[in-house]
Amino acid sequence: MLDMVLTTGVAHLTIGNLVMWLIAFFFIYLAITKNYEPLLLVPIGFGILMVNLPLTYLMEEGEGLLWRFYHYGLEWEIIPPLIFLGLGAMTDFGPMIANPKTLILGAGAQFGVYVAFFGALILGFKIPEACSIGIIGGADGPTTIYTTVHLAPHLLGATAVAAYSYMSLVPIIQPPIMRLLTTEKERKIKMRQLRPVSKREKILFPLVTVLVICLIVPASAPLMAMFMLGNLFKECGVVKRLSDAASNELMNIVTILLGVSVGATMSAERFLKWEVIFVFIMGLVAFAFSTAAGIVLAKFMNLFTKEKINPLIGSAGVSAVPMAARVSQVMGSKADPKNFLLMHAMGPNVAGVIGTVVAAGVFLALAG
Amino acid sequence: MTEVTAPMAGKIMDVKVEVGDTVNEDDELLILEAMKMEMPIVATASGKVKEIKCKKGDAVGADDVLVVIE
Predict the structure, then answer these.
(1) Would you call B8 and A340 a contact, using CB atoms and an 8 Å cutoff?
(2) Closest chain A residue to B37, measured at CA
(3) Measured at the alpha carbon of residue A268, what is the angle toward residues A265 and A274, in degrees to the nearest 5?
(4) Please, what sign has the CA dihedral across residues A61, A62, A65, A67?
(5) Measured between beta carbons, which residues in chain A are less than 8 angstroms from residue B44?
(6) Residues A271 and A77: beta-carbon distance below 8 Å
(7) Could B8 and A326 be called an inter-chain contact, meaning their C-beta atoms sit closer than 8 Å?
(8) Within the 12-51 window of chain B, which residues sit less than 8 Å (CB to CB) from chain A?
(9) Domain map of chain A by residue range?
């Protein structure tokens, strides 16, 4: 009888498992009731639940189902680049091409990445770990996962969840910083309607970008190449089927595998550590500094440019497409209901994705 | 005569006024959706709605005239 009981998972449950169940239920609750990043939090939450079931061996090396997802999907670097393929097929770079100054804002908003990197070093994390923590400030989930799998796989669950949590909390985290750093007058700055961007420009953009960035930062190539290939699918107009597949079916499939694999890394023994709390704190620091840097940089640019930029679009440089751009729109229209910043903010927003990939490439080259 | 134009391309989700209505500056005229975000389009001047050039469900381009106020 005792032997039979011992073959069940119940006899092997630990307090840690139960705590992780609570975390899993909390994520699923947030996804379903609050609509916080549901596409990721539902599979991540379920993955956490699965990996904290004793004796299922789902993450057993070489055998477990979730281990196979994790190993072949993430460790083999398949899933994040495929996510970027889909993102490329869904991204309109038109606002950035129409106003290339916004590229600077997207780059500037990576400041928080480096602040958190040095902060993590001071807290005692090793360089590869600090790189993985810093990249959370880019507010880009797939890039965070890609970097962490390379540099600090034991922190994957924490960095991925921190990145996605802060992305979903963009409408809560950013507004106080935006209000603090801008005046009412600045928030009312109206920006001129963006010029129309030709089809030729939109086709040339991914081709030129992939060449320039991959030559300068070769380590960013897997993400950048797929990102730009997806965008070329979208813009060239002759492979609608591929564009649709990349942005719909394929994107959905890899999102499931990504979420479950990330959740599966969050076993009690790996996740319930003090360092995870520091990861979350430094991730928030990174995010806040990135938001602030984008705004301050926009204000700085206004000192030299005739046509003023509304500093509220600077915060959209943290990527988190399109949530951060929406926050810029909301803040701008609160100051003046006739102010429409959404499309202007999309410029730094998509530039921020490129900026984060480049920052990740630099980290991988230095610490990989 | 004041023309209220679309600030960006999008879809008209709701038209909140009718021809002949009197509106004040900043009153909501329409709801425009872009990037899965609904934004109110407000009157740029006070006056009477002379013409509504779009209807619910229409796709509009940037700078398209939506409402004329006199």
Answers:
(1) yes
(2) A326
(3) 100
(4) positive
(5) 338
(6) no
(7) no
(8) 26, 34-37, 39-40, 42, 44
(9) 66-257+273-367
- In chain B the domains, ranked by start, together with CATH numbers, are 2-69 (2.40.50.100)
How distant, in Å, are the alpha carbons of A143, B3, B29, B68 from that of B43? 43, 9, 6, 9
User: Which ipTM was obtained for this model?
Assistant: 0.87
Tell how far CA A62 is from the center of its chain: 29
pLDDT for the residue numbered B27? 94
Q: Tokens 């230095």 sit at which residue?
A: A366
What's residue A128's pLDDT? 96
The alpha carbon of residue B11 is apart from the nearest alpha carbon of chain A, in Å, by 14
A338–B44 CB contact, under 8 Å? yes
Picking from B37, B44, B63, the nearest residue to A193 by CB comes out as B63
Mean pLDDT of each 10-residue bin along chain A, 368 residues long: 83 95 95 88 95 94 94 93 94 93 92 94 95 92 94 93 87 95 96 91 97 95 96 97 96 94 92 90 92 96 93 93 92 94 94 94 92
Q: What element of type H or E holds B47?
A: strand B47-52
Q: Which amino acid is at A284?
A: L
